[in-house]
Amino acid sequence: METPQFDAAARAQIISEALPSIQKLHGQTVVVKYGGAAMLDDDLKSAVMGDIALLHFVGIRPVVVHGGGPEISALCQKLGIAPNFVQGMRVTDAETMRVTEMVLGQIGKGIAHFLGDKGAPAVSISGKDGNLMRARKFVGEADWGFVGEIERVDKNLICTLQEGGFVPVIQPIAPDDAGQTYNINADLAAAAIARELGAAKLLLLTDVAGVYRDFSDKSSLIAEMSVAQSEELMASGALSTGMIPKVRCAVEAVRGGGARAHIVDGRAPHSLLIELFTDAGSGTMIY
Fold first, then answer.
1. Ramachandran region of residue 153, left (φ > 0), alpha (ψ -120 to 50) or beta?
2. Residue 5's pLDDT band (boundaries 50, 70, 90)?
3. CATH-assigned architecture of domain 26-286
4. Cα angle at 70 between 130 and 216, to 5 degrees?
5. Residue 53: strand, helix, or coil
6. For residues 180 and 118, is the Cβ–Cβ distance under 8 A?
7. How far apart are CA 68 and CA 147, in angstroms?
8. Which residues pair with 169 in a beta bridge?
9. First to last CA, the chain
10. Which long-range contacts (CB under 8 A, 24 or more apart) does 18-25 make?
11. Of 175, 160, 172, 164, which Cα lies nearest the Cα of 126?
12. What is residue 122's DSSP assignment?
């Protein structure tokens, strides 16, 4: 009988230690960018959905922004549309855009259903609903087709859902002023939404443990860094190509008014709770 008693006491202690963080975040908005392995592994998906539901039940206001790259590529291949990437971004022609909108819609409805099963009622919306987001064509070194960047965010629909007790689940697509729909990078969408909402936290789920000074040296994981330090690290060339956009999004969210941004290992069960409610954390915090 000693072991169960010890386990119960240890769990109670952990819950008690989380109280200051829960009090600090109570009533605050936390934006979670959901993607990567956490979307593809059923056990990880269940853990993340449970964590988001827990945030909802303790009085924190989660907003979920999700991607869906692997699922989009899989359906494109089934339809005979060869996925095409330039500099890591999907080239999106009209047919690929239709597939993208359909797949993201299915994913969003699935997330909303999963959260509902956990007891946290959720509603899946896109940037086209309620004038939530307005986009413009992304202009760069290449032509990516209907890939866009966010021009503005209108938080009214999100706030209405939150006031009604729902968790908003957002698909990162948005129209321009002429009505053309664009595919938006989910990290960029999450950062823009976090800025507009004045979110207390932006959590970007990734497939790595966090930001490293030297990725080949796992002891160089950075627990926290300032915006200035983040910009220095990006300029130094030390970051991998895939990590630079995430760090840039985190920096933009913090600079735009967000109190903290966290790059979190989505492969680790309950990484959201570890990052939010423990001193140890589970990724890299940018302040």
1. beta
2. low
3. 3-Layer(aba) Sandwich (3.40)
4. 115
5. helix
6. no
7. 15
8. 64, 124
9. 45
10. 18/277, 18/278, 21/276, 21/277, 22/58, 22/59, 22/60, 22/277, 25/60, 25/200, 25/201, 25/276
11. 172
12. E
What are the pLDDT digits (tens) for 100-143? 999 999 999 999 999 999 999 999 999 999 999 999 999 887 88
Residue written as token pair 């992304």:
138
Is pLDDT of 37 > 60?
A: yes
What mean pLDDT, rounded, does the chain reach? 88
pLDDT at residue 270 is higher than 70:
yes
Structure token digits, residue 123: 């509603």
Written as one letter, the residue type at 237 is G
CB 31 within 8 A of CB 190: yes
> Closest by alpha carbon to 90, among 221, 185, 12?
185
Question: Is 282 within 8 Å of 271 (Cβ atoms)?
Answer: yes
Q: Among all chains, which residue has been given the structure tokens 């021009």? A: 151
Tokens representing residue 166 in the block: 């729902």
> What is the sign of the dihedral through the CA atoms of 138, 144, 148 and 149?
negative
| C-alpha–C-alpha distance, residues 186 and 144, integer Å | 16
Spans of all domains in the chain: 26-286
